[in-house]
Specification:
The chain has 13 helices and 23 strands. By secondary structure, the chain is of the alpha+beta class. It folds into four domains: 90 residues, 3-Layer(aba) Sandwich (Rossmann fold); 56 residues, Dna Ligase, domain 1; 128 residues, ATP-grasp fold, B domain (D-amino Acid Aminotransferase, Chain A, domain 1, 2-Layer Sandwich), CATH 3.30.470; 96 residues, Glycinamide Ribonucleotide Synthetase, Chain A, domain 4 (Alpha-Beta Complex), CATH 3.90.600.10. Helix 1 runs parallel beside helix 10 and helix 7 packs antiparallel against helix 8. The longest helix has 21 residues. The structure holds glycine.
Length: 425
């Protein structure tokens, strides 16, 4: 098969790495890709949000199967564009991608299908939103209803912070159309984990869980980011908790979407909050997590391509995937300044040496080549990923590789997997 992956981040590098190992893949393209992806796929400079350009590219290259990586094109309807052109695609339709594109859509689905999640209300009127916040008290969570590049969620510790957040969104136009409506919800205490499942709209193939680290600095301090590191498996998501989350959250969602004539085909990424009462849904995403995908692809022992195709074609119930029992962990190297302003173009050295550390793969998230030089080209730049029999050893391997990378303009967290390292069973 001739396969095209849409995207150019660490998630897409990990997907291309896994897909390129499949005997079913005769030629792999990635658009736009990056300097690391270029080692396993031919990269072509078409933007991730350019549906017409991506469809035309797939037609020109005679692509048999497309895998869409990021959320924005899915929410905008890129999968429908490929389907309309008669090209098989991995990724949900625009209608089904509302699970990520609209917080209130998902909340209402949860209400209709008894899926456990935080209590909430949706507002477009500032005065009503403020009155609700005052009645509920803090802590309380304010979310832009639409897609806001991972920045539209404010966990307000005081009533004043919550009011400032809704004012920014509803009156200040902080997130544009994405913030024209807000969802205000109960603060959930507990430990947050990411759980993934493939679905063909009817059947579900559970993948595994992972835990991300959303804050920029050690100790979960600093601003929210797209994710500064991840690891898998996650001790709190043991087999019993995993089964419960599948039964109480994922399966009713897939059945509910099908019953409402919005079958979801692709990967469901459930952000879960786990406390003494079990799992509750924080949010859905309609694509693989980034950087969770990187650790999942390291642990996956089976060919991923048949499973991705079955999401589009149906018959996922006839497939099973094998996973390594080992731990995988990824450390994000980001450009200093991220997630705020940062400069592109600094040179990264030492990647070849770092990549030789046992069990290590380096996925590129934001790089470009300049002759033989590798330059930073984004906020999140590299995902230094390691596998080992224990999470402690995976972490040691990953940081050993990080320390061989010569890039003074970058930074990383030094405490990835702090919840799992040294945790008593
Ligand atoms: N790991 C966060 C995300 O993919 O949205």
């Amino acid at each position: 098969m001739r396969i095209l992956v849409v995207g150019g981040g660490g998630r897409e590098h990990a997907l291309c790495w896994a897909i390129s190992a499949s005997p079913l893949c005769t030629k792999l393209y990635c658009a736009p890709g990056n300097a690391g992806i270029a080692q396993v796929a031919e990269c072509i400079d078409v933007g991730t949000e350019d549906t017409a350009g991506q469809v035309a590219l797939a037609q020109r290259l005679k692509i048999d199967f497309v895998v869409i990586g990021p959320d924005a094109p899915l929410v905008a309807g890129m999968a429908d564009g490929f389907t309309a052109a008669g090209i098989k695609v991995f990724g949900p339709s625009k209608a089904a991608a509302q699970l990520e594109g609209s917080k209130s859509f998902t909340k209402e689905l949860c209400r209709r299908h008894n899926i456990p999640t935080a209590a909430y209300e949706r507002f477009t009127d500032l005065d009503k939103a403020i009155a609700y916040i005052k009645a509920q008290g803090a802590p309380i969570v304010v979310k832009a209803d639409g897609l806001a590049a991972g920045k539209g969620v404010i966990v307000a510790e005081t009533v004043d912070q919550a009011i400032e957040a809704v004012r920014d969104m509803l009156a200040g136009n902080r997130f544009g159309a994405a913030g024209a409506a807000v969802v205000i919800e109960e603060f959930m205490a507990g430990e947050e984990v990411s759980l993934f499942a493939l679905t063909d709209g009817e059947h579900v193939l559970p993948l595994v869980g992972a835990q991300d680290h959303k804050r920029a600095f050690d100790g979960d301090k600093g601003p929210h980011t797209g994710g500064m590191g991840a690891y898998s498996p996650v001790p709190i998501l043991d087999a019993a908790m995993f089964d419960r989350a599948m039964r109480e959250i994922i399966l009713p969602t897939v059945r509910g979407m099908k019953a409402e004539c919005l079958p979801f085909k692709g990967v469901l990424y459930a952000g879960l909050m786990i406390d003494g009462n079990g799992p509750r849904l924080v949010e859905y995403n309609c694509r693989f997590g980034d950087p969770e995908c990187q650790v999942m692809m390291m642990r996956l022992k089976s060919d991923i391509v048949p499973a991705l195709i079955a999401c589009a074609d149906g018959g996922l119930n006839h497939l099973a995937l094998r996973w390594s029992d080992q731990a995988a962990l990824t450390v994000i190297l980001a450009t200093k300044g991220y997630p705020d302003a940062y400069k592109n173009g600094s040179e990264i050295r030492g990647l070849a040496e770092a990549g030789k550390v046992e069990g290590v793969e380096i996925f590129h998230a934001g790089t470009k080549s300049d002759g033989t030089r590798i330059l930073a080209n984004g906020g999140r730049v590299l995902n230094v990923t390691a596998m080992a029999p224990t999470v402690e050893e995976a972490r040691n391997r990953a940081y050993r590789a990080v320390d061989l990378i010569d890039w003074p303009e970058g930074f990383c967290r030094r405490d990835i997997a702090w919840r799992a390292v040294g945790r008593k069973p």
